């Protein structure tokens, strides 16, 4: 086997995979190495909501490019993309004001959205409670994915249609520059060489460059989510984000009323303590995913977050969800924790070990939405290629 590549990507999650994808698109010879049999972390442990609408202007642009990329791939190969839109539901006048302001911001950004009346929301979303909703803001171009399906189908597309070399169950233990190339050594002693290596390690800080991560401003967020049993004769279209989300997502920080509204919020609530906001998304099997919460620890102490699930968080989220939607069933089929890394002071962690070894991680909750667009720009810059906007 010829183990010499233009680019070797360490990490088969969505961020690493799209770096490999864009390099392949540019005609480079690429290998993708993943330590597990299949990606198991944040890429598959999330809602599968692609929501550029919730991001600041910089990341909305990356998200819009991601939308175009997802749709282009879906037109050739089924990776589970569904264009069914995103709605934000306001529960009071403050949240309604923020929706109206965000609508005006997105008119200036030339990003399609539609203000919905209370009556329109109730008609569009079955089971939505009249006692909760005051109005909504709908983004028709946004999509959902099946997170446990998408990345595997994308890998298959890259392998069969783009001639990518994919190596699973392959843990990388060492990356070293050696003259004009970079040498990558795996746990089994296999050796790869590449002109460049990009390390997209998610929240795995133990295998490569652990000292670097301990001294960084990286933190890890633990999220609790759950999935109901399949809902009989019930359809909930798209991504549904609610009042606590409006009060949390960074897109709303650009609204004129944001600061005054946040100053008036109580600081000692359960939802503040555990970073809870309520989202809904119906999966392909008819079940509804509900979440989520946020607990944080530094990269050095991320193990202290544990894998246990706090019953009081799940109980709170279900109680809040029942105030919003009257689903046919709230019987829970699965509960899980997801983990992602993010930075305190940057929107993504990028570190150049040298001219040919590049670390890219800490994309936080922007991964499913922003990775495809961001990776396109990053590959263009790392290889000095022309970046072409796709939307």
What features would you highlight for this structure?
2 domains, D-Amino Acid Oxidase, Chain A, domain 2, 9-stranded mixed beta sheet, 391 residues, 26% strand, FAD/NAD(P)-binding domain, globular, 8-stranded mixed beta sheet, alpha+beta, single chain
Describe the secondary structure blueprint for this structure:
Layout: E1 4-10, H1 14-25, E2 30-33, E3 49-50, H2 57-76, E4 86-90, H3 93-108, E5 114-116, H4 118-124, E6 135-139, E7 143-144, H5 147-161, E8 165-167, E9 172-178, E10 181-186, E11 191-199, H6 210-214, E12 218-228, E13 239-241, H7 243-246, H8 258-263, H9 270-273, E14 279-282, E15 288-291, E16 295-298, H10 311-324, E17 332-343, E18 349-352, E19 357-361, H11 367-382
Beta fraction: 25-35%
CATH topology descriptor of the largest domain: FAD/NAD(P)-binding domain
Structural class: alpha+beta
What would the average pLDDT be, to the nearest integer?
95
Largest sheet descriptor? 9 strands, mixed
Q: CA-to-CA gap between the ends?
A: 39 Å
Radius of gyration: 21 Å
Number of helices: 11
Sequence stretches where pLDDT stays below 50 over 5 or more residues: none
Description:
The strands form three sheets. Strands 4, 5, 6, 12, 13, 14, 15, 16 and 17 form a nine-stranded mixed β-sheet that branches. Strands 1, 2, 8, 9, 10, 11, 18 and 19 form an eight-stranded mixed β-sheet that branches. It contains eleven helices and 19 strands. It is globular. Helix content is 30%, strand content 26%. The chain is α+β, with helices and mostly antiparallel strands and 391 residues long. The chain folds into two domains: 1-82 and 143-203 and 347-391, FAD/NAD(P)-binding domain; 86-140 and 218-344, D-Amino Acid Oxidase, subunit A, domain 2 (D-Amino Acid Oxidase, Chain A, domain 2), CATH 3.30.9.10.
